[in-house]
């Protein structure tokens, strides 16, 4: 554990709390991509297959449970809650996310660190997480105007990846046997996907105006 990983986990938790606050306060999921939430649910279930077989620490186990439970809960609300699902922007959330799932799994079969079931699914989850935000970013660009809670949610997700890049750099410099190159490369790609969003977020903050992304 180091300060960068702790900061990354904390900002990810903030993103979850912001999203849950939006759903609870507005009883709507308007502006949120259900397909991105489906991808995150797949990511965490695939990554933490070792939840009941490998114990590292109480903190590690707690975070695994939180990420799995929260992603499944958000997905359930968006798909089945009688009030929340009414706000779902079905006409805007049309990204074909199943291509991302197939491509990520195929890549995991080709590029992995160990050819075991657990490692294949770990690599798959890393590749899929790198692109899971794409449906959400596309939805935001199509809708144009974005509410503040949705902006905060995406911002904290992007900050999480930025902190994790610093975490991997720190671990590479301090741990002689640190070889998680898959996580490092995927994290760089994932952070790059947020570049456009961060730019317009900065512009709106600088001008003290409502966030708006170009269509």
Automatic annotation (TrEMBL):
<keyword id="KW-0653">Protein transport</keyword>
<feature type="transmembrane region" description="Helical">
    <location>
        <begin position="121"/>
        <end position="141"/>
    </location>
</feature>
<dbReference type="Pfam" id="PF00810">
    <property type="entry name" value="ER_lumen_recept"/>
</dbReference>
<dbReference type="InterPro" id="IPR000133">
    <property type="entry name" value="ER_ret_rcpt"/>
</dbReference>
<feature type="transmembrane region" description="Helical">
    <location>
        <begin position="56"/>
        <end position="77"/>
    </location>
</feature>
<keyword id="KW-0675">Receptor</keyword>
<dbReference type="GO" id="GO:0005789">
    <property type="term" value="C:endoplasmic reticulum membrane"/>
</dbReference>
<keyword id="KW-0812">Transmembrane</keyword>
<dbReference type="GO" id="GO:0016192">
    <property type="term" value="P:vesicle-mediated transport"/>
</dbReference>
<keyword id="KW-0931">ER-Golgi transport</keyword>
<keyword id="KW-0813">Transport</keyword>
<feature type="transmembrane region" description="Helical">
    <location>
        <begin position="98"/>
        <end position="115"/>
    </location>
</feature>
<feature type="transmembrane region" description="Helical">
    <location>
        <begin position="178"/>
        <end position="202"/>
    </location>
</feature>
<protein>
    <recommendedName>
        <fullName>ER lumen protein-retaining receptor</fullName>
    </recommendedName>
</protein>
<dbReference type="GO" id="GO:0046923">
    <property type="term" value="F:ER retention sequence binding"/>
</dbReference>
<keyword id="KW-0472">Membrane</keyword>
<dbReference type="GO" id="GO:0006621">
    <property type="term" value="P:protein retention in ER lumen"/>
</dbReference>
<feature type="transmembrane region" description="Helical">
    <location>
        <begin position="153"/>
        <end position="172"/>
    </location>
</feature>
<dbReference type="GO" id="GO:0015031">
    <property type="term" value="P:protein transport"/>
</dbReference>
<comment type="similarity">
    <text>Belongs to the ERD2 family.</text>
</comment>
<keyword id="KW-0256">Endoplasmic reticulum</keyword>
<keyword id="KW-1133">Transmembrane helix</keyword>
């Amino acid at each position: 554990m180091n300060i960068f990983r702790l900061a990354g986990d904390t900002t990810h938790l903030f993103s979850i709390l912001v999203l849950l606050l939006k759903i609870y306060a507005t009883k709507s999921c308007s502006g949120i991509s259900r397909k991105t939430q489906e991808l995150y649910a797949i990511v965490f279930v695939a990554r933490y297959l070792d939840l009941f077989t490998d114990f590292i620490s109480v903190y590690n186990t707690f975070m695994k449970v939180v990420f799995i439970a929260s992603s499944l809960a958000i997905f359930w609300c968006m798909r089945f809650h009688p009030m929340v699902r009414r706000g779902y922007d079905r006409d805007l959330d049309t990204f074909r996310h199943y291509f991302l799932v197939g491509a990520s799994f195929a890549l995991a079969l080709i590029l992995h660190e160990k050819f075991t079931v657990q490692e294949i699914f770990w690599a798959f989850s890393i590749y899929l997480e790198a692109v899971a935000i794409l449906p959400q970013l596309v939805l935001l660009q199509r809708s144009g105007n974005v509410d503040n809670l949705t902006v905060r949610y995406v911002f904290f997700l992007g900050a999480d990846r930025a902190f994790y890049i610093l975490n991997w750099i720190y671990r590479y410099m301090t741990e002689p046997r640190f070889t998680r190159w898959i996580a490092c490369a995927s994290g760089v790609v994932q952070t790059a996907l947020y570049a456009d969003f961060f730019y317009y977020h900065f512009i709106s903050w600088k001008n003290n105006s409502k966030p708006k992304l170009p269509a």
